Fold these 2 entries.
Entry 1:
Amino acid sequence: MKKKYRRAIRTIVLALLLAFVFRSYLFASYIVDGESMEPTLYDGNLLMVNKAVYDWQDINRQQVIVFHANEREDYVKRVIGVGGDEIKVKNDQLYINGKLMDESYLDPLRPNDGLPFTEDFTLEEVTGESTVPEGHLFVMGDNRRDSLDSRYFGFVPVESVVGKVDVRYWPFNQLGVQF
């Protein structure tokens, strides 16, 4: 009987230790607050963020990330530009280094009201820089008309990135793994 209790306690302690390691070093759970990432993510969605992925690979354009915006808030946005990129939006089309980028993920939210979904800008107009500095990112929300993003607060240091959004797990009917 004593042996059963020891085995059960050992199993519980091991499970708690593994949960602590996964939560602290590999994954984190976040709640989307606001509408800036619609239609990709909605207010109240619960996300699983991979905190370790960028220890092994670089941050790439189009990935959805969570980063520390300030001491109290974390933001979720899409990476538009990485170090060295020139960015421009013209006629509601995104150009990176002069190349037109596919942003079909925006199509479900684009209103048919004749107004641009993303106002024209160049990187220099919104940040004063002609390219994204090395070690920094330019991020935008998918809901371009209603997003506080790099067009307003500037570049995001790579060190402030918490991780990559891997899974939307709540609500269940919006379960998703690719963003």
Entry 2:
Amino acid sequence: MEAHTPNPIEIQVETTYVEEQSRPEQDRYVFAYTITIINQGSLAAKLLSRHWVITDANSKVQEVRGEGVVGEQPHLQPGESYTYTSAAMLETPVGCMQGSYQMVADDGTHFDAPIPVFNLSTPNILH
């Protein structure tokens, strides 16, 4: 079995406030997030499932679990990346997300790739 780092996956995140889908007067704030998953390990790995923890400014927490991302379970060779865009809806103009992807390397090793916390905020909110 080839040696590899326990977490060879890098996660990059970009967020955007989706004003045209948001309804602030109804406490509905929609945010798009674009995730890039980069396999920095020495083995190929497949993304099996996701777990998100989404928290708004009122400390309301939503947990989301499911297979794959946007209907896919990307299999990333060493050095490959996969990018997708999804969205989250909050009841407040600011919040945050974090979570993990459950992965399996080609040698059968299962591991979690943590997704660091990132902020969601409307443009008029100071960071």
